């Protein structure tokens, strides 16, 4: 059976004795396809020491030379797109086209990182005082780390380490143990691109590795994406140990459909956003909010018809819209949420439980599920289901529709469908959510903007990638300089001013 290790100081290493192994499943068949070595605190320390040794020399390279490594890494990943997508689908279960998108969206952040010399330019004021100039510079933090989830094993690691490494840090990545192979392969490609050994390390593991990262004295900052409870834990623990932390949590994104919306376009977009990748996206659209009874009935009819045409298949099926969920345990959690929705009184319009594929009866498949008449006090509305389950929560007015996502404890993303520019502008300005799509179902910003939600969807005050990412992984140093001419002046015993 295939064994998956760690990547420390430029080489694949095995797991430490006693740390154990974890099963990596084939979600299509349900079989164990590999074993991943778990790490421990000692292995994290090995990675941190290697990263610290590598970081000093890496940071001393000029930004252009670091950018050239990022250019080469981008080329290598693009050349191996098919290999990476197949490996990703084999462990995660998403269809190949979705896996290619996973890699591509990560590469867009790498493209941004290729322009790091421009992003690192500081500020300069000539003549701030008599013969005095003031300027600032951005410098790397040192050793930093990222803890990433199973649902985007290529994109989210590249969101983090691409910018962190480009600005001059070294990086320790703790990917999900559910689909660990792609992050490991990316680390190998980074070394092949010219990064020194130790600049990018991958340590596999569970909570023991997470805690070792959060408490290690050499690690200066931690970026995290995952569930909200764990995000809060990571934020509190990392901050208590003096680290800079950005921790992105869960979501319950809403899609508002106004009466004037293009219902055919809205339906097509909502189906893709709700059921794509089996709903295992923090930017999925699991709640649709039609405004008015007429809109609700027309949208429901279209959604049911669209669901009937969806094809669920194995991840290698080019005609499938989505594949299995990642593990049997996750399948059980999603199906339990469906059962809870029924108990709470929501109308189950389409039931995806019990879905099987011939020849893949033990795979982790769930058919598309649709609820209607979902109320905001229901547990299944408040909680993130993270599966192919769409809920219709009807609203009587624009204000009611605005209130639902604004009052929800999560505030990651929201979308509105309308032809009315004034209504869209008003909604975008007033809704209490971090990312807004206007006739766009999954409003994930492009790489040179930033990604981040509000409320329980994010802890910390800095977003992912873009200039927010540059700020997170650097510290500002400000220099006030005067070059005296002639005789040296007497020392001043009062605070200097710029008069």
Protein model, in words:
By secondary structure, the chain is of the alpha/beta class. The protein folds into 2 domains: 2-249 and 457-479, Aldehyde Dehydrogenase, Chain A, domain 1 (3-Layer(aba) Sandwich), CATH 3.40.605; 254-438, Aldehyde Dehydrogenase, Chain A, domain 2, CATH 3.40.309.10. 39% of the residues lie in helices and 21% in strands. It has helices at residues 41-60, 63-79, 81-92, 96-114, 116-119, 155-166, 181-192, 207-215, 228-240, 263-275, 293-308, 328-343, 379-382, 398-407, 421-430, 466-472; strands at residues 2-4, 6-8, 11-13, 21-25, 32-37, 124-129, 132-140, 143-147, 170-174, 200-202, 219-225, 244-248, 254-257, 287-290, 347-350, 369-372, 389-392, 410-411, 413-417, 435-438, 454-455, 458-459, 474-482. The strands form 6 sheets. The chain has a 7-stranded mixed β-sheet with strand order 15-16-17-14-13-19-20, sandwiched between helices. The protein has a 6-stranded mixed β-sheet with strand order 10-9-8-11-12-22, sandwiched between helices. Strands 1-5-4 form a 3-stranded mixed β-sheet, with no helix packed on it. The N and C termini lie far apart (74 Å). The mean pLDDT is 96.
């Amino acid at each position: 059976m295939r064994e998956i290790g760690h990547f420390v100081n430029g080489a694949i290493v095995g797991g430490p004795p006693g740390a154990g192994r974890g099963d990596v499943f084939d979600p299509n068949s349900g079989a164990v396809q590999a074993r991943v070595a778990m790490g421990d605190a000692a292995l994290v320390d090995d990675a941190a020491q290697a990263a610290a040794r590598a970081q000093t020399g890496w940071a001393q390279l000029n930004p252009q030379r670091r950018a050239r490594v990022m250019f080469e890494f981008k080329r290598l990943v693009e050349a191996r797109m098919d290999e990476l997508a197949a490996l990703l689908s084999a462990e995660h279960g998403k269809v190949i086209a979705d896996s290619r998108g996973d890699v591509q969206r990560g590469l867009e952040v790498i493209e941004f990182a290729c322009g790091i010399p421009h992003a690192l330019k500081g500020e300069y004021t000539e003549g701030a005082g008599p013969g005095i100039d003031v300027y600032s510079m951005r410098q790397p933090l040192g050793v930093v780390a990222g803890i990433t989830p199973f649902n985007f094993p290529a994109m989210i690691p590249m969101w983090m380490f691409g910018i962190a490494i480009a600005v001059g840090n070294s990086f320790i990545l703790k990917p999900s143990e559910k689909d660990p192979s792609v992050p490991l392969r990316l680390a190998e490609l980074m070394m092949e691109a010219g990064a020194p050994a130790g600049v990018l390390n991958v340590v596999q593991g569970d909570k023991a590795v997470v805690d070792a990262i959060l408490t290690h004295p050499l690690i200066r900052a931690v970026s995290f994406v995952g569930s909200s409870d764990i995000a809060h834990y990571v934020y509190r623990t990392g901050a208590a140990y003096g680290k800079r932390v950005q921790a992105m949590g869960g979501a319950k994104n809403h899609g508002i459909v106004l009466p004037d919306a293009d219902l055919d376009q809205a339906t097509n977009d909502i189906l893709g956003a709700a059921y794509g990748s089996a709903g295992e996206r923090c930017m999925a659209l699991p709640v649709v909010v039609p405004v008015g009874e007429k809109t609700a009935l027309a949208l429901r009819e279209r959604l049911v018809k669209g669901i009937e045409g969806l094809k669920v298949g194995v991840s290698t099926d080019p005609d499938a819209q989505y594949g299995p969920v990642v593990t049997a345990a996750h399948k059980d959690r999603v199906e339990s949420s469906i059962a809870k929705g029924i108990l709470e009184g929501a109308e189950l319009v389409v039931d995806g439980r019990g879905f099987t594929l011939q020849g893949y009866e033990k795979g982790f498949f769930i058919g598309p599920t649709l609820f209607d008449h979902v109320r905001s006090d229901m547990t299944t509305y408040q909680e993130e289901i993270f599966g192919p389950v769409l809920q219709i929560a009807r609203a009587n007015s624009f204000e009611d529709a605005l209130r639902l996502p604004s009052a929800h404890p999560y505030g990651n993303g929201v979308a509105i469908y309308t032809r009315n520019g004034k209504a869209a502008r008003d909604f975008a300005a007033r809704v209490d959510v971090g990312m807004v799509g206007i006739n766009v179902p999954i409003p994930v910003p492009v790489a040179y903007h930033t990604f981040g939600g509000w409320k329980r969807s994010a802890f910390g005050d800095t977003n992912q990638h873009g200039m927010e990412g540059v700020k997170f992984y650097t510290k500002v140093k400000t220099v006030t300089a005067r070059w005296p001419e002639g005789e040296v002046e007497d020392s001043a015993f009062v605070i200097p001013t710029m008069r």
